[in-house]
Amino acid sequence: MRIVIAGAGIGGLVVAQALVRAGDDVVVVERDPGVAATGGYRLHLDADACVVLREHLPPTGWERLLAGSARAAAVPRLMVRDHRLRLLATARPVPDEEWLLVDRRLLRRVLVDGVEDRICWSRTVEGFGESAAGVVARTTGGDLEADVMIGADGARSVVSEQLLGRPAARDLGYSAVAGRVPLALADGLADLVTESGVLAFGVDGTGVFLSRSVRTETAAVAGGVATEDADLVWSAIAATGRISTDPERLTGLLRRWDPRVRRLPGLSDPATIARFPFLAADPGQELMPWPANRVTALGDAVHAMPPTGGQGAATAVRDAGLLAGALESVRRGRVTVPVALADYQRAMTAYAPAAVAESLQPVRWMRMLERPAARVIGRVAFPVAAAVRSVGVVAR
Questions:
Q1: Distance, C-alpha 360 to centroid of its chain
Q2: Under the GO molecular function aspect, what terms does this record hold (predicted)?
């Protein structure tokens, strides 16, 4: 089959790997100038995502991911702390399940390997239409005829918007500003992000996320990433009107936070500081109400979710595996393309809304803590919760 994929993000590249290895004629259209443009945190890939990657990556690619990832069952995938960095809770993986914490840049490089000649960099999809052969993708570099088109073009997806007749995601009114600090300079914070990410809540409705990111794949593959080869990746989260990329204003926003957190904006190279809004699909609405034909979507293009839940990448990978399996049925002559896409869309909507809903919960907590009464409660509840947890750990 001839297949056009809009977007070379995580989900788009996973399905590209699967389809290319199955022998399909695949073209990926990507607005980035190249794979080096990737940024972001380490990503949590759950057991379902690991099954997909193990199946559809070449063995050497899977080995690269394992070598550069944290994967111990005893390690919490996320620690929840307050603005003083007191531990409130941990989110652990299900015992005995395979899971990975992997740097986004490493994952994307692994996923590009073997399909890079199929990617049209610095090019965007502007829409699609019908053709005698099936579908035509309208792109900035010209039209592309295909049997199937897959929208993997993110939360502001052009493909999904045309299918739905409206944007697939809404702005939540919250934004994050992220930056990077060499781990060696992240005074006392390195130990907090050795294996796990940290999501922290302030009593004034602000939030902070901390994670670690390697700078080079060489360091990652060697295992036990050296301090000088790693960064602390941080983000400050608040209502959009309260947040800025200016380091001084960010420091003011974090005035109630632990001094080590407050210093992070000033320690960051300004070139690494970027702002992004929180966009999300509505888990209460049908995510894919359009009739199945020859165009579909996956990942953030259909079920965008804020990064506060740590589920976006894993859910996109799961989508990609499900869609690859549906198209394999077409390849074997068992079903037509529209039936295969209908099966995929029905199966995906059975799990994606729950992931969106869970990812929205931390934003609801921050919104609640903006209220004066909740701030008073938070000032009392946070230290009490931390103390109770500490006593429980000591008792065990």
A1: 14
A2: FAD binding; monooxygenase activity
